[in-house]
């Protein structure tokens, strides 16, 4: 992660834009982490999210079988105090979501071999969702 002064990074998960809104406007209309269509944080939110710095490796873990369902790590360790950045309940299919602003840059990894740290608890590398119908 490259995070210059004034730069922002948003990380989390989001619902896919509905077919009639395939323009991708979903995230531009609602801040990442609104708790309805997106869950996550932005470095401009302050708290633990505001302590991120250039070079940090952030993990996003999603586990529908345990609480919290969504949580974040920095360097393989939990990010934030207690459940500060954790999300207790998410329903339905979600997708990785991230954004940058003010000159910030991200490098992302989804495959197991390219992850910098072992996924926590019962989590694994990202898997491709499949419709069951």
TrEMBL record:
<dbReference type="InterPro" id="IPR003877">
    <property type="entry name" value="SPRY_dom"/>
</dbReference>
<feature type="domain" description="B30.2/SPRY">
    <location>
        <begin position="1"/>
        <end position="115"/>
    </location>
</feature>
<protein>
    <recommendedName>
        <fullName>B30.2/SPRY domain-containing protein</fullName>
    </recommendedName>
</protein>
<dbReference type="InterPro" id="IPR043136">
    <property type="entry name" value="B30.2/SPRY_sf"/>
</dbReference>
<dbReference type="InterPro" id="IPR013320">
    <property type="entry name" value="ConA-like_dom_sf"/>
</dbReference>
<dbReference type="InterPro" id="IPR001870">
    <property type="entry name" value="B30.2/SPRY"/>
</dbReference>
<dbReference type="Pfam" id="PF00622">
    <property type="entry name" value="SPRY"/>
</dbReference>
<feature type="region of interest" description="Disordered">
    <location>
        <begin position="1"/>
        <end position="34"/>
    </location>
</feature>
């Amino acid at each position: 992660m490259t995070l210059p002064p004034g730069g922002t990074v948003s990380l989390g998960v989001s619902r896919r834009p509905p077919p009639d809104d395939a323009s991708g406007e979903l995230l531009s209309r609602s801040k990442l982490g609104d708790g309805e269509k997106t869950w996550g944080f932005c470095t401009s939110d302050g708290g633990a999210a505001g302590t991120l710095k250039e070079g940090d490796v952030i993990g996003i873990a999603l586990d529908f079988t345990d609480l919290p369902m969504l949580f974040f790590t920095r360097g393989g360790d939990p990010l934030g105090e207690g459940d500060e950045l954790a999300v207790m309940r998410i329903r339905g299919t979600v997708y990785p979501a991230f954004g940058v602003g003010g000159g910030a840059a991200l490098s992302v990894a989804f495959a197991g071999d390219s992850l910098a740290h072992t996924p926590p608890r019962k989590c694994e590398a990202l898997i491709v969702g499949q419709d069951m119908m």
